[in-house]
Specification:
17% strand; elongated; alpha/beta; binds iron/sulfur cluster; 507 residues; 2 domains
Length: 507
């Protein structure tokens, strides 16, 4: 462990691995702005939750930052035009997903003016109430930019309600190759620190900790300088994978463990990423919705790797072109990092809010050896940051015994791939877990569907029984009324007859 880490990080991390970082490929050149592409393709679904609802039609002229898709529900986020221009198409376009399947997308032809919407700004962002800041963060379409893409305003509101005490800003960036957060901290530290203070104010957090891995000395120095005179504390943590996992960062900085299947708010902690803090500051101080982000473009197949600030909706091909094109045929295209990122079928997919990296990797970089039988060395157990038994879980999954795998903590697996990475037998353990989690999700969905169907059937049966009951009661009532009417009629007739007889006798 680096001596700096020994000095500043509080608790030893559990598990973890040290893959070749390859960060040197892209870490040194400053962030460049991507030249505006010919077209931008903005998907309506870029976040966890309901997709945004379309709020433009083909032919509309839009300004940069104008709403083009409204929030689709309680857990959702709006999307905005990344530049000024014309809406030329609305429809399916390949999504940045391993399947490459199409999703609803708005196509914009930039007009070259890049003209922003006009907004009214507060003189002092801290004069706004915490609720107003959350509302503005929500309206700006900000989501977790570390890759989770959970709507940030929802997290802020939940944190206020849960009474959190500590805000942790995750500057770990432990995935190999990625350097976008590193560059952001080196170049925009003042803005990030203001964003951190705004998030803490909106969430009601008193303590503000920023965790940065010890392999980013320039970022640490820049953030320390920017944090001077504020209550933001910069903490150095050891460089290892998956230090960027929220639960790992919380444990290292506070010594607290998030309960299995629980949320960090349950132990009074809120976690956001450094890029999210930057986006919050842009939204609150300048009224700018989230329409661009910094993306690392790297891999040995890229001619000139680096970091680009790209408008949402730019194609992966536009980014590769801006980095000098491909120097060789990539064996694999990845969106995100090599450990947890998604493999891309081609470069015709747009960058979205959660796109932290675009990698074009050569065959040498990914070398895929043939798996051998498990030698029970327990390297995977030592590497697992979640304290699981990967070899046992994989054995149960192989035997189609999902229940036992769940019993061993399958649902706590974060899919970080550390176990696969260290396995000397090259067993693709994480693929077993991802497959099993998919199966579990399908089973749970089917169970919910069956329950819903049974509930519908029960409700229908109850309704039918009620109708029959009501009909029988109505028939009984009718019969009773008729009997009463007949009796009354008979009584009246008898009374009339008796009266007539009485009259005759009197006469
Ligand atoms: S690391 Fe691989 S070989 Fe070693 S125990 Fe785990 S699964 Fe088996
Ligand atoms: S993929 Fe899952 S089981 Fe493997 S190391 Fe990561 S958390 Fe542990």
């Amino acid at each position: 462990m680096n001596p700096l880490s020994r000095l500043f990080s509080s608790f030893r991390p559990r598990g973890g691995v040290h893959p070749d970082g390859r960060k040197d490929l892209s870490a040194e050149p400053p962030i460049r702005i991507l030249p505006m592409p010919e077209f931008l393709y903005v998907p309506l679904q870029q976040h966890v939750g309901a997709p945004a609802r379309l709020s433009v039609v083909v032919g509309d002229q839009v300004l940069k930052g104008q709403l083009i898709g409204a929030s689709g529900g309680n857990i959702s986020a709006p999307v905005h035009a990344p530049t000024s221009g014309r809406i030329t198409a609305i429809g399916d376009f390949p999504s940045p997903h391993p399947s490459g399947l199409p999703s609803a997308t708005i196509t914009i032809e930039p007009d070259g003016a890049d003209r922003w919407i006009e907004v009214s700004l507060p003189d002092d962002p801290f004069s706004l109430s915490p609720e107003e800041i959350s509302a503005r963060v929500g309206a700006a379409g900000i989501v977790g930019l570390g890759g989770a893409t959970f709507p940030s305003a929802v997290k802020l509101n939940l944190s206020r309600k849960s009474g959190i005490s500590t805000l942790i800003i995750n500057g770990g960036e432990c995935e190999p190759y990625l350097t976008c957060d590193d560059r952001l901290m080196r170049e925009r530290a003042d803005g990030i620190v203001e964003g951190i203070r705004l998030i803490a104010y909106a969430a009601g957090a008193k303590e503000m900790l920023v965790g940065i891995e010890d392999n980013k000395p320039e970022a640490i120095a820049a953030m320390r300088k920017a944090a001077q005179g504020t209550e933001v504390q910069i903490k150095v943590v050891p460089a290892m994978y998956p230090m960027g996992w929220d639960k790992q960062m919380i444990q290292v900085l506070t010594g607290k463990e998030v309960p299995a299947e629980g949320r960090s708010a349950e132990i009074g902690v809120l976690v956001h990423n450094v890029a999210t803090a930057w986006a919050v500051r842009e939204a609150i101080r300048f009224g700018r919705p989230l329409v661009s982000r910094v993306v690392t473009v790297s891999g040995a197949a890229v001619t000139a790797p680096g970091n680009l600030e790209v408008p949402i909706g730019a194609l992966a091909a536009d980014l590769i072109k801006a980095c000098g094109g491909l120097s060789s045929d990539p064996a694999r295209l990845v969106l995100g990092g090599p450990m947890m990122g998604a493999q891309m079928p081609h470069l015709n997919v747009p960058m979205v809010k959660g796109s932290s990296g675009l990698l074009a990797l050569t065959g040498k970089e990914i070398g895929l050896p043939t798996p051998a039988p498990c030698i029970r060395c327990s390297s995977c157990v030592r590497a697992c940051p979640a304290g699981l038994l990967p070899l046992e879980m994989a054995a149960h999954i192989r035997a189609a015994d999902l229940a036992s795998a769940v019993g061993l903590g399958l649902k706590d697996c974060i899919g970080c791939g550390s176990c696969s990475y260290v396995c000397p037998a090259h067993i693709p353990l994480v693929h077993f877990f991802n497959y099993a989690k998919g199966e579990l999700a399908a089973l749970e969905k089917a169970k919910l569907r069956n329950e819903a169907t049974k509930k519908l059937a029960d409700t229908r049966q109850e309704r039918m029984q009620r109708i029959v009951r009501e009909r029988e009661e109505a028939a009984k009532l009718r019969a009773a009324k008729k009997a009463a009417a007949d009796a009354a009629k008979k009584a009246a007739a008898e009374a009339a007859k008796a009266a007539a007889e009485k009259t005759e006798v009197a006469a």
